[in-house]
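Look over both lines before class:
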Amino acid sequence: MTELETAEVSGGRIRIARSRGAVSGILLIILGAWGALAPLVGPYWNWGFTPNETWNLTDGRWWFQVLPGIVTVIGGLLLFFGTDRITTSIGGWLAAAAGVWYVIGVPLEPNLSLGSVGEPIHSSLRASTFERLALFEGLGALIVFVSAYALGRLAVVGVRDVRHARHRAARKQELASTAVPATDIRRKEPTTVIDEVTPSEDNPYASNPHDTVVLPQTPAHARSGSTEDTTRLDSKDI
């Protein structure tokens, strides 16, 4: 196998597609929200456990209903947004633990000092059984089932995971091959443009500040003649 098929494809064991835990995550979010809100809003319809008061967060409701519901929602969010097996597995185990607590919390309640969960509001056997299953044992069993399903899917490295890993590896190699190495970028120093055809040293018309300019001397008769002509011209004009 090539390097692409060994080192890079092994990333499929860690990285997963987001859709792998999306459905389980959504279900766990819904179940957790139900478990946390149902005991607080159930008394609006005269349904749930005592006390028959809305938004009355007693110690028993907090420890045995609201808190495990919040943990289930957190686990569902990790499953929904997670893109690696570590994060999604933590979310699955958190939700599974919350589901187990829903199941065993009520039987352990007399032995714990966490408050009382109360009694079913309805006294009939059918209604009270439904309330108990919807808020505790049945809800917890359903959460455990969904969490186990999600963890089972995460334990398998599927063909789709390998395909995604190969796509990421190929994309990474393509970006690495097209990238410009940082060492090839050199700093350009400012340069002075020099005329190689007529440099300043060989240009006869270039002035040198250190040269002495010698003016030609005008003969005396030329100077006097020019003066006389000028005088004569001036007299005629006058």
Q: What stands out?
A: Residues 85-108 form the longest helix (24 residues). The chain has eight helices and no strands.
